[in-house]
Amino acid sequence: MSNETQLFGIHAVMEAIKSGKSIDKIFLQKGLQGDLSKELIALLRTHKIVPNTVPIEKMNRLTHKNHQGVVAFTSPIDFQDLEEVIIQTQEKGEVPLFIVLDQLTDVRNFGAIIRTAECVGAHGIIISKTGSAPVSADTVKTSVGAVFSIPICKVDHLKDALYLLHSYGIQSVAASEKTETNLYSMNFTLPTAIVMGSEGDGVSKGILKTVNHIAKLPMYGEISSLNVSVAAGAFLYEVIRQRLN
């Protein structure tokens, strides 16, 4: 059974957006015309929802219903406010541990990271509203349901999220090979947010300039990089190792 809800038709999609539903993906037919279509597009801009513009053949593959040129998928979870999650974590007297995902697009990697994050007791996962893997049925399956047990925060800009974390005394550590600093030399007993990048490009240059620290995993083989979900697991368990000691 899918954990996503498919919506189609301009009125239905507009009402979902106005009611605060979390829209993971939205598809608009190319060349959509009419006052109602313009109203929908304006609503998407207001809510900073970026649609995928596709030909009618793609729309008809998404649904055989009368879609009126728009099909949307809502998230199976409710996203949480980052600042509220930070405050709740501090009120519990726990040392914050967050994971920031910079343009990670593979839902299986996303689900695997969610699963590991929940296992280590991380307090939240932070993703961008644009360019990130959706919380889809595949994400739910790969996370083995962990997606329902850990707060996921969608933010407009990851840089602003990092500045907010810093303002609450939470250091940010980006995983990247573009450094001489070894992962195992970091102090993870401090409040920490681990930043992982995309599968192909890693952490973006803008984010690397924003974080407090950059650290890498030692690599001795001929292959120069690990799968992002495996690397995330290595970072997270080093955090736990240090905190247990």
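(the above was protein one; protein two follows)
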Amino acid sequence: MNQMMDMLGSVQQMTERFSAMDSASSAVRMVYLVVIVFGILNCLLGYRLLRFWVMLVGFGTGAGGGWLLAEKMGMESRTTTLLMMVGIGIVLGIVAFLIYKFGIFLVAAGIVFAACLYLIHPTTSFLFFVCVLAGTAAGVMGVRYAKEMIILGTSLLGGVISGISLCGLLGFEGFPYGILFCGAFTMAGLLIQVLTNQVKEEEREEETSIPDGKNEERMK
């Protein structure tokens, strides 16, 4: 009888483990799918969705600044710190959304500044200043060549995210698969964004241009 109970207990434990594994794998697959959709949207529509991403970056930058300000002021209340983060984040997000070029500057400068911090690990004021200078230069270049950099950056970022997530979803591990999927998504996104935005600009030029005959009639 005891052996039978032990066997039933073992079967029950195995069932619970398999159920947990199934639930975990389902959750992981769902995360992969969400990330793939996000990556594809960013890859194919990155330039057109730029104001949305700019607003998010502005909010994140403001929230981070609010947290640093609360730390400098020595605030111990978590509620006050959270309110300060949300308030400054919302204000900077709105400013970034309305002032388009300022938002582009924030995005480009923030990405390069974060990359420099990660790669250099500044331990002196000079190295930190180098990171700030690199971020500022990237922000200026982003404003100057906004469209080209945005299309290239969003295609590359979305392609890498989508490719890696698809490899994880399909269980393809190894060197060639990741590069192939990332490269395919990136090239497709780059081509589609260039073509669709070029067509859009040509349509705008045709709508704003006035034929010579109509110009003569208006002059009369």
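Reviewer note on protein two: Confidence is low (pLDDT under 50) at residues 1-5, 14-21.
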